Amino acid sequence: MLIREFVDQDWSQVWPIIEEVIRAQETFPYDPEMTAEQSYGMWAEAAPGRTVVAVDGERVLGTAKMGTNRPGPGAHVATASFMVAADARGRGVGTALCRDALAWARHQGYAGMQFNAVVESNRSAVRLYQREGFDVVGTVPGAFRHPTLGRVGLHVMYQEF
Fold it and tell me: pTM of the predicted model, to two decimals?
């Protein structure tokens, strides 16, 4: 598996991953009716941010976007988001993408990385982030409407560098 910079030609494989994740409504607080065009504008980060893909040969297994969490006085903290194709989960793709994002943020001189909305029922993601050094610093109760579990909390997770 190789992690490399996203290029426009990757979109035909990245969009189905994003579409599947947002339509499931289980792990991301994105509008499930979002179009490919809207998603591209949201996912393809402009510099100084970055978007990457994890590939096995020509196949995109997952994708990540990263950048500044908030402008101005919060610009010293990075953020990132990750999505992995359903049939590639459990193979270390998410871990590799997370490590890549952390290395990028450190190299860019950020003081830490914050995840603003990790669905608490997404236990595999929460465990992955904790293994990589993140802590849950707060949870907004009932802030995410899960399609089968009802309202569940959204964690704010943080790692200081």
Answer: 0.95
